[in-house]
Amino acid sequence: MSRAEAERRGRKGETLAVWWLRLTGWRVLAQRVKLGVGEVDIVARRGRTVAFVEVKWRRDGAALETAVDAHRLRRVARAAEAIAPRYVRAGDDMQIDVILIAPGRWPRRIANAWQPGA
C-alpha cells in the first residue's frame, strides 16, 4: 500500500472513530493535533474525563493486535501532556485511549491504554 493510500485510510479510520465516539456519548474537542513531540488523533470529553485518542485502522482484524506498541503510546502521551492545558480543567481526569478499527468489525476502544511509568 502506498503512503498516500495509507494516509487516506488512516483519515477514514479517524472519521469513523469520531462518529463512534459521538454515538457513545463523547464530545470531540479536536482532531489531528500535531506537535514536534507527537500527534494526538482525537481529543474527546465525556463528563469530567478528557481522552487523548490514538486511532489505528488495519485492513484485517488480526493485524489490530499489533497495531499499537509502547513507543507509539509514549509519543501520544508526550503530545497529550503538551496540549492538556488547552483541554483539561481543574478536577478533570485525563487518559490515553486507543480505538482499533478494521472493516467488518465494530470499533474497539481500549480505555486508559497508557499509564505513566509504563
From TrEMBL:
Domain of life: Bacteria
UniProt entry keywords in alphabetical sequence: Endonuclease, Hydrolase, Nuclease
Keyword Nuclease belongs to the record: yes
InterPro entries: Restrct_endonuc-II-like, tRNA_endonuc-like_dom_sf, UPF0102_YraN-like
Pfam entry (one): UPF0102
Protein name: UPF0102 protein GGQ88_002315
Family: Belongs to the UPF0102 family.
Molecular function via GO: endonuclease activity; nucleic acid binding
Organism expressing this protein natively: Novosphingobium hassiacum
